[in-house]
Amino acid sequence: MDGDPSNRSSTTTEDDGVDGDPAVWAALNESFRQVQSVLDRNRILIEEVNENQHSRLRDSMVKNVSLIQELNGNISKVVSLYSDLNSNFSTAFQQHSKNPATNVARDRS
User: Fold this and answer.
1) Is the Cβ–Cβ distance between 58 and 5 less than 8 Å?
2) How far is CA 46 from the centre of its chain?
3) From CA 15, how far away is CA 108, in angstroms rounded?
4) How many helices (H) and strands (E) in the chain?
């Protein structure tokens, strides 16, 4: 397995032991995609900041201010996305734990 959550099955099988609501897995997958998108943007911003820093040109240094502000905002966004993801996962887990018989019956149908 390559660790990519989008490659993970969202259905229950007795072989893999994974169960749950496909809608919950889809929501978690979307959250991970959003986080990855912001992290990819941050990587690009960091590369650009580094290039600007090496150039030592005044305009490049001035541009770094806005790039670093965007980077800081993106870090806050990632924290928020992970917080939401944690809440969604916890809620789904608690609902599944409260009704295991209902979930097994629903998952097998």
Assistant:
1) no
2) 19
3) 13
4) 3, 0
Instruction: Answer whether 31's CB lies under 8 Å from 89's CB.
Output: no
State pTM to two decimals.
Answer: 0.66
Do the beta carbons of residue 7 and residue 95 sit within 8 Å? no
| CB distance 38 to 74 below 8 Å | yes
30-61: per-residue pLDDT in tens?
Answer: 999 999 999 999 999 999 999 999 999 999 99
Task: Estimate the crossing angle of helix 58-98 against helix 22-55, to 10 degrees.
Answer: 160
Question: Exposure of 23 by Cβ count < 10 A (0-12 exposed, 13-18 middle, 19+ buried)?
Answer: exposed
